[in-house]
Amino acid sequence: MSPDQVLWLAAILFGIGAFGLVTRRNALVAFMCVELMLNAANLVLVTMSHVVGGLDGQVAAFFVMVVAAAEVVVGLSIIVMVYRARRSTSVDEASLLKL
Amino acid sequence: MTQIPAPTFEWLELAPVLVVLVAACVGILLEALLRRESRFLAQIVVAEVGLLAALVFAVANWREGRIGSLAMGSVSLDGPAYLSWTALLVFGLLALSVFAERNLNDGASSFVASAASIPGSRHEREASAAGHEHSEVFPLALFSLAGMMVFTASGDLLTMFVALEVMSLPLYLLSGLARQRRLLSHESALKYFLLGSFASAFFLFGMALLYGYAGSFDIAALNQAVSAPLLGRGFLYAGMGLLAVGLLFKIGVVPFQSWVPDVYTGAPTPVTGFMAICTKLAALVGLARVFFVALGGERWTWQPVLAVLAVLTMAVGVVLALTQTDIKRLLAYSAISHAGFLLTAVVGAYQEVGSGQVNSFGAIAFYLIAYGFSTIAAFAVVTMVRNESGEATRLSDWAGLAKRNPWLASAFAVLLLSFAGIPLTGGFIGKWAVFASAWAGGFEWLAITGVAFSLVAAYFYLKVIVAMFFLEPAEGVEVGRASAFTIAPIAVGVAATVYLGLFPGPVMDLIAAAQVFAR
User: Fold this and answer.
1) Domain harbouring A75, CATH code
2) I want to staple B362 with a disulfide (CB 3.0 to 4.6 A). Which of B6, B107, B514, B515 is the partner?
3) pLDDT of residue A97
């Protein structure tokens, strides 16, 4: 499998994540889309590490996983807090602040 | 068997960051060990002492001239890093002092009694009545500050990404902890979190592509790869663009500004003051480091794009600020317009200066220092104007403030004049510096556009001043009796604003001696 194919896959995953975040209305699903984008970046890092011939990229992927885990903790606590107050996680209903 | 060399770590040089992190960890321990009544005071002491100690270390190291590449190249400690560390620590001290105010709210802080309680529930009322408080806000702010400090001094993109998250995650939580108007606060936390993590995903993907292009995360290696290209430029342009999205989001540049007004409005006002300057400072120094050092060889590519964004940012910030009726939203749109003014200096990317003059980064640094003092003081003033339900943020509530409290109104007027860039205030010198560096960098049209927009912007600041001084006082609004925790930052902010306007020389010299990035 050539690196090009993997990079295209990563780009597609990133695109799906970005598109999903913009279009989906459920905060949880939107959050999952962010995780998808982070993992797409991980795929690029590992592939590039293979192409470049160093371990930096693979180590970076571990860092990203740890960061993503920390982000889940913070993100879920915020989403649960919002859900408890409103009984809904829809992003559309969160519109008290006008633009 | 191959030996793995032990990583080197320069404890003394990194002491300012480490002290802040240790203070934050001590704060977490205090939460577990101390009784509830004594926690808040203990947290204030730990946070302020920690920041003061870190400031002493930073200034001492700076005077000793300890610069260089630290921690295996992941931290690059140079003049701009020291400048931003010192500024961040001073602003942190002032902003955290506003966090500690408890007189305005009948003995309670601006933070919710129990974040887990449902707004309007019995649990919430019980927690408030029992005097519970979230004193974790201090460690959270310290963690965020440590992230910002590392972010401004990152020597590679991976450190930068981790620091970006360390500075952002506590802020997402802090913005959801307001005591009043909790639903708004929740909503701002949700928006900030979703959009913020969206932006950091862009940053990460851009970083991965640049790694593929340069074969290293090092900012210096990236600089070499840009000047001597081995591969096609596709990765470089894609990576540069995506990385820029992440950074511009944090600064609040159009089209990534939509979170700014909502989060500034929904977050507790002390937190708004903290992030309004500290996040912006960290993100702008990071942007300057990436674009001046790592991608300086590609300036012909990014300058026109950032120039267009700067104009759009100024336009959106200024035009929408004209229509605002809420003081926090007004200050938020004003923050967007300031992001645009600051971006003009980034576009100028003017580096060749004689000794004693400021280059583009120096102009940005001066602007941020002047803006930071005014911003923290301005949001501290906002916490003091109150009606029976809490902070009175409608502009109509601010009418006739001078008749109720001439001192506060005058202080706020000075701050607004500085935002507007009226001579004899720090804001004027800052605007002068950034527009001059845009001009010197060959973007005369951008400098002229900036001046035009700042003239329009003066209108809505003056509108508030006129309302405060010449209209009849609004009903049911009063100026709260704040303790020294709020008064001191306001006094320092106003004094610094005036001082920087009258005597910019010493600070300018300091900046001019420390404005060159290590390469």
Assistant:
1) 1.10.287.3510
2) B515
3) 60
Signed CA dihedral, B263, B269, B275, B280: sign only:
positive
Q: Does the distance separating the beta carbons of B205 and A40 come in below 8 Å?
A: yes
pLDDT at A96 > cutoff 70 = no
CA B168 – CA B279 distance, rounded (Å)? 8
CB contact under 8 A, B188 and A97: yes
pLDDT per residue as tens digits for the range A18-61: 999 988 889 999 999 999 999 999 999 999 999 888 888 999 99
Are B191 and A96 an interchain contact pair (Cβ–Cβ within 8 Å)?
no
What pLDDT score does A75 carry?
94
In the prediction, which pLDDT does B409 show? Answer: 94
Which residue range is the domain that position B105 belongs to? 15-513
Which parts of chain B have pLDDT scores under 50? none
Q: Find the domain containing A39 and state its range.
A: 3-86
Mutate to test the interface with B, among A31, A36, A48, A63 (most CBs of B within 10 A): A48
Is B100 inside a domain boundary? yes
Which residue in B has a C-alpha nearest to residue A30's C-alpha?
B194
In chain B, the percentage of residues whose pLDDT exceeds 70 is: 98
pLDDT interval class at A94 (50, 70, 90): low
Number of domains observed in the structure of chain A: 1
CB contact (8 A) between residue B161 and residue A67: yes
Q: Minimal Cα–Cα distance from A10 to chain B, Å?
A: 10
- With CB atoms and an 8 Å threshold, state whether A21 touches B198: yes
Nearest chain A residue (CA) to B200: A38
CB contact under 8 A, B165 and A48: no
Q: What is the DSSP letter of B518?
A: P
Nearest to B78 by CA among B90, B69, B91: B69
Cβ contacts of B262 on chain A, cutoff 8 Å: 97, 99
ipTM tops the 0.85 cut: yes
In angstroms, rounded to a whole number, what is the distance separating the alpha carbons of residues A49 and A43? 10
The answer to whether residue B67 sits within a structural domain is yes
Number of domains chain B is built from:
1
For residue B209, the number of C-alpha atoms closer than 13 Å in the C-beta half-sphere is 26
From B204's Cα to the closest Cα of chain A, the distance in A is 6
Half-sphere exposure of A39 (CA within 13 A, CB side): 12
A-B CB pairs within 8 A amount to: 125
Q: How far is B313 from chain A (nearest CA, A)?
A: 16
Among chain A, residues having any CB pair with chain B shorter than 8 Å are 14, 17-18, 21, 27, 30-31, 34, 37-38, 40-42, 44-45, 47-48, 51-52, 54, 56-57, 60, 63-64, 67, 70-71, 74-75, 77-79, 81-82, 84-86, 91, 94-97, 99
Can you say whether residue B356 is alpha, beta or left, with left for phi > 0 and alpha for psi between -120 and 50 degrees? left
Mean pLDDT of A66-72: 95
* pLDDT for position A99: 44
